[in-house]
Design brief:
There is one protein chain. The chain is α/β, with parallel strands linked by helices. The chain contains 6 helices and 11 strands. Helix 1 packs parallel to helix 3 and helix 5 runs parallel beside helix 6.
């Protein structure tokens, strides 16, 4: 497998433009698997659930998944990216894995971080594995890194690679993911967004 990551600064509340950047990255890479940031379609910082609902999408029928599924089929490549998933009245911080063949896998983040708890719903167990280029790819999202059991369970379930879409705000998360790799004898691919976001006087630097 050739694996890669795409780190960029999503524009808040502009899912169509962000999806276009994800598609361009997928079409231009030589990687079998491309890992992109958490909430790559919407931007990260939301304090108002209705504002988040306005840019959230159903999976797999939403426009971003539909668009990137077509690109995956055209290129024969796989992509993992973060999305605000709308499921009925609930909104989840999710990561979606799409490939040329096989079902769309949608994992809902288990451990919400800080202000995420104000706008996202907590999830139960969701699918988190797919076969890509002969390897088992497990999925976790950002703050899941803080809990060693997350990576351990993925490894015990057979993961060769852990795809880790993220929006990292602390400087030690990357070192922790190296530790997760060593503990579990798996490869990990952390893709964090870049830039800053400011909402209602609150600024986060990634």
């Amino acid at each position: 497998m050739i694996a890669g990551f795409f780190q960029f600064s999503p524009v808040r509340a502009e899912p169509e433009g962000n999806a276009a950047r994800l598609e361009e990255a997928l079409r231009s890479t030589q990687a079998d698997l491309l890992v992109c940031p958490e909430l790559a379609t919407t931007g990260y910082l939301y304090r108002d659930k209705e504002a988040l609902r306005a840019v959230a999408e159903p999976v797999p029928s939403g426009p971003t998944v539909t668009r990137l599924a077509a690109a995956a089929r055209a290129t024969g490549r796989a992509i993992v990216f973060g999305i605000a998933e709308r499921a009925g009245e609930k909104i989840y911080n999710s990561a979606v894995l799409i490939q040329a063949d096989g079902p769309v896998v949608c994992y809902r983040k288990a451990h919400l971080f800080d202000t995420e708890t104000e706008v996202f719903d907590r999830a139960g167990a969701t699918p988190r594995h797919a076969r890509v280029a002969g390897a088992d790819v497990g999925i976790m999202v950002c703050f899941d890194w803080r809990f060693p059991e997350m990576a351990r369970v993925l490894a015990l379930e057979g993961a060769d690679v852990i795809a880790h879409p993220s929006n990292l705000v602390h400087p030690y998360c990357q070192d922790a993911m190296i530790t997760r790799s060593l503990e579990n004898r798996v490869f990990t691919i952390t893709a964090s967004r870049t830039g800053r976001e400011t909402v209602d006087g609150m600024t986060l630097a990634f």
